[in-house]
Predict the 3D structure of the following.
Amino acid sequence: MTPAIKLLEKLKIPFTLHPYECEAHDDFGKHAASQLGLPEAQVFKTLIAHHDKQAVVAIVPSSGMCSLKQLAKATGLKKVEMLAPAEAEKLTGYKVGGISPLTQKKRLPTVLDASALQFDRVLVSGGKRGLSVGVSPRDMQEKMGWLIAPIGE
């Protein structure tokens, strides 16, 4: 049980588990989609960006990228840039490829790409490589306070 799964259970947020073989060393989201037989647009990756000392979480489809300009706009920051992988690991407590948007060392503003709303469930990292969880975008917005904005490109 990862901290992410424990949080979903504690908050009584419905979810599904999606374990898969993780042999990738990069592009973890695309690898997960391939292993699970799901469209890349439904399997989301978690990215960490920052401006000065303010970090933010961006959750975008594994089929695309994050628009840093749109992410900054959604979070009210002047501009943002991606955090280096080692810094993202240190900040979140997770390894790259298993960074979950659900629980981290410190709660960060979290933005989910608006494309998620086309699905009843999207997959996000369950807190370790080789484990995704299926969650409702609306549940995440309502119960986790995630912002929903057009941040994907």
Notes: The radius of gyration is 14 Å.
